[in-house]
Specification:
There is one protein chain. The protein is an alpha/beta fold and 317 residues long. The chain has helices at residues 14-18, 35-40, 61-78, 119-125, 156-168, 179-188, 212-220, 231-234, 242-256, 283-292, 297-315; strands spanning 6-8, 43-51, 83-85, 101-108, 128-132, 171-173, 194-198, 224-228, 261-264. It is built from eleven helices and nine strands. The strands form two sheets. Strands 1, 2, 3, 4, 5 and 6 form a six-stranded parallel sheet that branches. Helix 7 links the parallel strand 7 (194-198) and strand 8 (224-228). The two termini are 34 Å apart. 50% of the residues are buried. The site of zinc ion has 5 residues, from loops.
């Protein structure tokens, strides 16, 4: 089989760049993701998330988010011969690029806009094209999974955010959102949505994972779920292997359709990885596993990247 190119719906590497711990260009610096290994692994598009850590919430969340976005712009500028930013629908035609890795700026946590709708066009102007509405906590938009007992739908502000994101052409990411919020977003959004890094609850009953009903509905709405590589969400307990990622992919493809499945590693955001998927250079091994599991090359191509591209080509302006 030909090695498929990869779209990864989530990584948290930016904060290490911001902290000057790594340049994110060379493998020997450690961590899970850098340009050298991403290239080796066939990464064509990487969602780069500005993850706003809990200690900054709520009052310094906006400032922290902007600080991470400034770091992202600096990373792109320094490495402009090796990366380019996806901002418009037409940029997608360059994927996979022969020499460069495409990056899509994302923010993980609606706290970056506080309670101000005007912040959405501002972060859009800064290049952000995807927003994870919540992390695990409650914010002004909705409740995260850490608040799942409330059973809350989106706030009025959250509903306005969905409308504005649809109008701007920003991708709505429901990973970390509580279940009532998930259904509310599906009901409101005029565009397909994604769960950038989530697993199947049927195989691992974690509150962060999606039920079969959610997976089915996401697929029916033309959305994509990026299978998450965090062992805690792949298996009930103990260490996980690449084969566990394959199991989640098989299950999601059965329940939601091959068109609804993608990859969402969260490299550099997770403290351990499945055996055999230690960093972003290992994707070709996962492709081989899927081939052995009976997926065709065409299906693997969709799961590895084309499904995410399909959603982006619908959502972006
Ligand atoms: Zn996350």
């Amino acid at each position: 089989m030909r090695e498929p190119w990869v779209v990864d719906g989530h990584c948290d590497s930016l904060y290490e760049f911001l902290a000057q711990k790594r340049s994110l260009t060379q493998a020997h610096e450690g961590g899970h993701w850098d340009l050298e290994r991403a290239r080796h692994g066939g990464v064509a598009l990487q969602f780069m998330a500005a993850f706003i850590e809990s200690e900054y919430k709520p009052h310094r969340a906006m400032q922290r988010g902007l600080e991470l976005l400034e770091a992202a712009q600096r990373f792109v500028q320094i490495n402009k011969d090796r990366v380019f930013l996806i901002k418009e629908q037409k940029d997608l035609a360059q994927i996979p690029h022969a020499h460069k890795i495409a990056l899509l700026l994302a923010v993980e946590g609606g706290e970056i806009i506080g309670e101000s709708l005007f912040m959405l066009p501002i972060i859009y102007a800064l290049g952000v094209r995807s927003l994870t509405l919540t992390w695990n906590q409650r914010n002004a938009l909705a409740d995260g999974v850490g608040e799942h007992l409330t059973g809350s739908k989106l706030t009025r502000f959250g509903q306005a955010v969905i409308k504005e994101m649809n109008a701007l052409g920003m991708l709505i990411d429901v990973s970390h959102l509580n279940e009532a919020g998930f259904w509310h977003v599906l009901e409101l959004s005029s565009q397909p949505i994604v769960a950038s890094h989530s697993c199947a609850r049927k195989l691992c009953p974690h509150v962060r994972n999606l039920s079969d009903e959610q997976l089915r509905a996401l697929g029916r709405a033309g959305g994509v779920v990026g299978v998450y590589f965090y062992p805690r969400f792949l298996v009930d307990n103990g260490p996980a292997t690449r084969q566990d990622v394959v199991k989640h992919i098989i299950h999601m493809a059965e329940v939601a359709g091959v068109e609804a499945v993608g990859l969402g590693s969260d490299f550099d955001g997770i403290d351990n990885t499945p055996a055999g998927l230690e960093d972003c250079s290992r994707y070709p091994l996962l492709a081989q596993d899927l081939s052995h599991a009976g997926f065709t090359d065409e299906e693997i191509g969709k799961i590895f990247g084309k499904n995410f591209i399909r959603v982006l080509s619908t959502v972006l302006k």
